[in-house]
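Q: Give me the 3D complex with tryptophan.
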Amino acid sequence: MVKLFGPETNMAADMADNTGRKRILTGIRPTGRLHIGHYVGALENWVRLQHGYDAYFLIADYQALGDHIDDIQLIRESVLQVAIDWLSVGLDPEESTFVIQSYVPEHAELTMLLSFITPLGMLQRNPTLKAETEQLRPEQLNVGFFNYPMSQVADILLPRADLVPVGEDQAPHIEMTREIARKFNRLFARENPVFLEPGTLIGRIPRLSGTDGQAKMSKSRGNAIELGDDEETVRKKVMSMFTDPTRLRATDPGHVEGNPVFEYHDAFNPDTAEVDEFKERYRAGTVGDVDVKKALIVAMNNFLDPIRQKRAYYEDHMSEVEEALMEGTRRARVTAAETMKAVRDAMQINTYTSTWE
Ligand code: TRP
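A: Here is the predicted complex, encoded as structure tokens.
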């Protein structure tokens, strides 16, 4: 299921690439390897969209500094790991543009300029940011972290994206992007709008539970199945999964809803007849957790096998990974420079003399 919010079409037409495709931009913070929650919530959608759109995929290493300033080594390693994950699930650098944020200084520049038209209250009210800051101790909450939705607005506006495919939790940031784009145009570019108001596109499964039954899968909570996990690791993780806590014996009627084992079956097992039969027998108390889990292990490994094979290839061909990143980043810098020129012209900033470009 794909949900679309915001304007589906806008003044983007003139900014579409030379094949007339509309542009999408989306990103990920490089703070570890990607997992199956990223896949169903976002990546799967991105792979599909890259063919119809001029697609920008951003590795947001500046944004990652917000809560990883004391672990820059992890960010460094994760930039290449995320790129490998992307390539392994089928993002194609020939079709799309991979970008490393910190190699495009305009991201920082636009963040700074836009911050002057952004009321503090807009960040204070942002529900995703609110939930995240509440998890941090006061001394962990730096200004850069608090400002990350602002920098995300700049990420999206810099390539003048029409559409942002993301997980559900990111929707408030895209809403904020629309507000800022509108405000910038109203204040500085009434005649000739610089920015578009991008739409939000949410993936098939907005949120996947963790293996422990917690509402969200995340590496830091230790409840994730990673795209790079080997067969044995997947087996162990699935066997130790949380199921229906009210069910003590295999002969007790069990609950399928809210049971992460069935949630994963629905997401990853293409044999829907098998899944339906398991659900029926589980509700009737005629199948045990172990059998349902064993079938899930098979389905998960079938799903992950081709991804693992591609990962192994790219781990052996790191120069292709680096080339994909640098080639895309080069393209993104051209677009970024064009947008920043339009921004400066509109604001009449940094345009005082004619001799120094
Ligand atoms: N905040 C996103 C995440 O948590 C990453 C991100 C950075 C992003 N810049 C973006 C997503 C721009 C969409 C658009 O992974």
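A quick observation: The pocket of tryptophan is lined by residues 25-29, 58, 60, 63, 152, 155-156, 164, 166, 170 (CB under 6 Å).
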